[in-house]
Q: What sequence folds into this?
């Protein structure tokens, strides 16, 4: 970890408003995108990110929080809240969001097909283990390196690669089964 990040965490522990604002500005958009990819709902993703930062502040207040790897710490909170959401309620039907459809150079039927494919993949991701899902999302949607994922999850690089391999195989099996059922 860089000394710059250590100083930022130290300032955040002292509740320096500039440091807290910098942390929020640096991570909120990426955390929102991560939550949205899992939940598929703008409001739920916004609420979840607000809860992440609330828990971060509460941890700092109690003297806890990250000692290093701030990004991994915030993603871990986000991931845990997403998992809790999955446990509490079944996934809601995804609404068609017209503001995301209007683009002059794209065919509306193509956009709808892309969204339907994304919905199918999102539903399939819910059927694999939470660890496999976390590895796949961080690796392929968030573009994290294998070593970053291993550090965040507290696992070896080999274990992360195994989770990725098994998760992709399970996703392929689920998607193929889904395709066979729809044909």
A:
């Amino acid at each position: 970890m860089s000394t710059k990040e250590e100083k930022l965490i130290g300032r955040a522990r002292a509740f320096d408003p500039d440091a807290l604002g910098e942390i929020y500005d640096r991570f909120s958009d990426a955390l929102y995108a991560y939550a949205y990819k899992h939940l598929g709902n703008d409001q739920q993703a916004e609420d979840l990110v607000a809860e992440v930062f609330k828990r971060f502040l509460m941890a700092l207040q109690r003297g806890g929080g990250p000692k290093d790897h701030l990004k991994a710490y915030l993603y871990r909170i986000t991931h845990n809240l997403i998992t809790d959401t999955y446990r509490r309620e079944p996934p809601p039907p995804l609404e068609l969001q017209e503001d995301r459809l209007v683009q002059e150079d794209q065919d509306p039927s193509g956009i709808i097909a892309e969204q339907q494919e994304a919905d199918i993949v999102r539903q399939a991701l819910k059927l694999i283990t939470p660890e496999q899902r976390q590895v796949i999302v961080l690796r392929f949607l968030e573009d994290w390196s294998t070593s970053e994922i291993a550090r965040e999850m507290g696992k070896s690089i080999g274990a992360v690669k195994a989770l990725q391999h098994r998760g992709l195989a399970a996703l392929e099996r689920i998607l193929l089964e889904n395709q066979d059922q729809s044909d």
